[in-house]
Automatic annotation (TrEMBL):
Organism: Apibacter adventoris
Keyword field: ANK repeat
Protein name listed in UniProt: Uncharacterized protein
Superkingdom of the organism of origin: Bacteria
Signal peptide: none
Alphabetized Pfam families for the sequence: Ank_2 (PF12796), Ank_4 (PF13637)
KW Signal (keyword) present: no
ANK repeat residue numbers: 68-100
Lineage: Bacteria, Pseudomonadati, Bacteroidota, Flavobacteriia, Flavobacteriales
SUPFAM superfamilies: Ankyrin repeat
PANTHER family the record matches: ANKYRIN REPEAT FAMILY PROTEIN, IQ MOTIF AND ANKYRIN REPEAT DOMAIN-CONTAINING PROTEIN 1
Length: 261
């Protein structure tokens, strides 16, 4: 019994010590670069030194480290440095600059590494010109097809973050953007992640064009199956999830009222 407790505690220690270790967001990547002194100031939240280095020594606030192509704004975001993020933006950091490795911008990084649906940094980035409809592309090697990821698709995959979805839509995020094939969009992402509150909100937007097909199972295979919103919902049982069951019923009722069920 004692041995089991020891192993459990050890696993917890390993989890909490490693969960924020992200190799692409390490300040050491800026060693031997022209912005090393600025990276040290960002790491230590030395706002006055950051300002001096950028304004007086003309150090490039948008410099991207050579391995992954991340910039200091991205590192400040991942490390949850709100005041430093604000300072970097005020000094001219570009929230739409993409890295080399994954085509991410500071805005998509903020959405991916958001803690507890805290929108502070997302709002800061939008206030400083972040593109709410930015997208990155993935190549699905098995089918040689392109899959897109948008800010809204990232938000709609986050459970209990419907306020984030609403905020992005209010700021101009396009509900009807195609991510993969016709019909596969942010609504699909919300349904796949059982985020039915977000799905309901997106479905009921006046600008939403509700597709007949939102998901194709075994696409291109012999058992290909095309699913509507109703099909996806009726496949799932939410008996142990009363909140999602309520949203499921609301979605189905709404679709019926507009003759889309």
């Amino acid at each position: 019994m004692i041995q089991r407790i020891y192993i459990f505690i050890l696993m917890l220690v390993m989890f909490y010590s490693c969960k924020h270790y992200l190799p692409g967001y390490n300040y050491k990547l800026f060693q031997d670069t022209p912005v090393y002194t600025l990276s040290k100031a960002v790491e230590s939240d030395n706002l006055s030194e950051m300002t001096r280095l950028v304004k007086e020594e003309k150090i490039d606030v948008n410099y991207r480290e050579p391995k992954f192509g991340n910039n200091l704004l991205m590192l400040a975001i991942v490390n949850q440095k709100k005041e430093t993020v604000q300072a970097l933006l005020d000094l001219g950091a570009d929230p739409n600059l993409k890295n080399f490795y994954s085509d991410d911008t500071s805005f998509t990084v903020a959405l991916k590494y958001m803690e507890s649906c805290n929108m502070d940094k997302v709002k800061l980035l939008i206030e400083h010109g972040a593109d709410v409809n930015t997208r990155k592309k993935y190549l699905r090697e098995a089918t040689n097809e392109t899959y897109n990821e948008t800010a809204l698709s990232l938000a709609s995959s986050k459970k209990n973050c419907v306020d984030l979805v609403k905020y992005l839509v209010a700021k101009g995020a396009c509900v009807n953007d195609t991510l993969y094939y016709k019909g596969y969009g942010a609504i699909t992402t919300a349904l796949i992640h059982n985020n039915l509150e977000a799905a309901l909100y997106l479905i009921k937007q006046p600008s939403t064009e509700i597709p007949d097909i939102v998901y194709i199972r075994d696409k291109g295979g012999k058992d290909e199956q095309k699913l509507s919103i109703t099909d996806m919902l009726e496949e799932e049982s939410y008996s142990s999830d009363p909140e999602n069951q309520k949203y499921k019923e609301e979605i189905l009722s709404y679709l019926k009222s507009i003759h889309k069920r």
